[in-house]
Specification:
Blueprint lengths: L14 H5 L2 H7 L2 H34 L2 H15 L2 H5 L2 H9 L4 H37 L8 H24 L3 H25 L3 H27 L6 H33 L4 H37 L3 H24 L1 H8 L8 H26 L3 H63 L1
């Protein structure tokens, strides 16, 4: 008897199976990007440590700090933001650009040159700035006294210089664990000293800002020790001049960006309602946990973003940006769902309604984190002058947006203005990157 052949079932083509097949994923998601996620976990690690410690200690601080204390802390932290671009002069960014283009010896010489210059520069710049601002405060009827708060935040900014360079080296070398240890040390000492000053000695805002100053001073000493091993004590004047020339537009642009991020608090102080200003800052502090996570992701992916642009690996660049976006959107959505009970717990039930500000500010923070990556792409293209132009345009838009929103809707208006401004920044950055890449492609074709 003949054997009847059995018809084999036909495989049904499924485009989704092909899209998520192992070969496709391996093609688009490179090992370096997987490693970035691992490094990001360590960068996130400090954010997680801050969150855990914050969850435990925030209710304690809330019982000993008044809304006016939160207003003072938020205001002066924002105020020093206007000076940060001038304290570091964007030379961290210059070092990161040069890092992949020169040998180890040149990098060590450059590190010594840049740090030495900033150290001397800030010994001159910060004391003069303090005297000028103190005079301005006295003649403008500011709600808060400059002393001792301004001295504390300026001192903290000075002590952060050494850590900034050390952390940049750790990031560029993908030494995420060392990065995590140094950041965690700063967090733990800051909280411990602040609790001692606020709870034990009842120092209020003085104690909270003083704790940050003492902690940053300790990390400054440790960072100096690490830096000495990473540097060759030889000044390179040519590199310094080249760096200052390249970053000058970037400094001005960064100054504008810091102004955008902190202008709301400066304008809100003029309303004279320190109690509601305190609630606004509590909401900002809670949303800041998400901003810290965004910074951690940025720290993990920034070196590769620069590398992919320099080497014209745009597909890998797109995958990196997609991963960062997906993670940030997911985290923000989860936070907003549970923000009210979170705020109730963190403030011991005293300032629960601050969650409304936190939700709005969290969305604005999401957009700002994404825009940082987009600006890094332009930086990798060395389009510092274009960055300056974009930031000037954005600052003008932001100023009028904040002015109108605060005049019309006070504190709620300031929070929503953050979203509008951040979205505007992303839209402008995307269009600019498209035009720059189109120009680069045209130049490559004509070459």
């Amino acid at each position: 008897m003949p054997v009847l052949s059995k018809t084999q079932p036909q495989a049904v083509y499924n485009p989704f199976m092909k899209l998520f097949s192992k070969a496709t994923l391996q093609h688009y998601i490179q090992p370096s990007q997987v490693k970035n996620l691992g490094n990001s976990a360590l960068y996130f690690g400090n954010s997680i440590v801050q969150m855990v410690i914050g969850i435990v200690t925030a209710p304690i601080f809330a019982r000993y700090l008044l809304p006016n204390d939160f207003a003072i802390i938020g205001y002066f932290t924002a105020f020093v933001g206007f000076f940060n671009p001038i304290t570091h002069l964007s030379l961290y960014n210059y070092f990161s650009i040069k890092f992949f283009k020169q040998n180890e010896t040149s990098n060590k010489e450059l590190l010594f040159t840049l740090f030495s210059f900033l150290f001397v520069w800030n010994l001159i710049f910060l004391p003069i700035s303090y005297l000028v601002v103190n005079i301005v405060f006295k003649h403008t009827g500011n709600s808060f006294s400059a002393y001792p708060y301004l001295a504390m935040v300026f001192g903290t900014a000075f002590f952060s210089l050494a850590q900034g360079f050390v952390q940049m080296v750790f990031r560029l070398r993908k030494q995420a664990f060392q990065y995590f240890l140094l950041e965690t040390l700063l967090t733990v000492v800051n909280i411990f000293v602040s609790l001692l000053l606020v709870v034990q000695f009842k120092m209020g805002a003085d104690g909270r800002l003083g704790g940050k100053l003492i902690a940053q001073g300790l990390v400054f000493a440790i960072s100096l020790f690490i830096l000495w091993k990473l540097m060759i004590p030889r000044l390179n004047k040519a590199s310094l001049i080249d760096g200052l020339r390249l970053v000058t537009p970037l400094v001005l642009g960064t100054f504008v960006i810091f102004s955008i991020r902190n202008l709301d608090k400066i304008l809100l102080e003029r309303l004279g309602d320190s109690n509601e200003f305190g609630y606004y800052n509590i909401g900002f502090n809670n949303a800041n946990y998400l901003i810290l996570m965004g910074n951690a992701l940025y720290a993990a992916f920034e070196p590769d973003v620069i590398k992919y642009v320099v080497k014209e690996k745009y597909r890998k660049l797109a995958v990196s940006i997609f991963l960062v976006t997906a993670i940030l959107v997911s985290i923000t959505a989860v936070y907003i769902l549970f923000s009210e009970p979170i705020t109730h717990y963190l403030t011991s039930g005293r300032y629960t309604r601050a969650y409304k500000y936190a939700n709005i500010i969290a969305v604005g923070g999401l957009f700002l984190s994404l825009n940082k990556l987009l600006i890094t792409i332009l930086l990798a293209f060395k389009k510092t002058k274009i960055i300056l132009i974009l930031n000037v345009i954005t600052s003008i838009f932001a100023y009028f947006c904040y002015k109108y929103a605060i005049a019309r809707f006070t504190f709620n208006g300031a929070a929503y203005a953050r979203i509008i401004i951040a979205f505007f920044m992303i839209a402008v950055s995307v269009v600019t990157i498209y035009l720059v890449m189109k120009q680069q492609k045209k130049l490559a074709t004509n070459a």
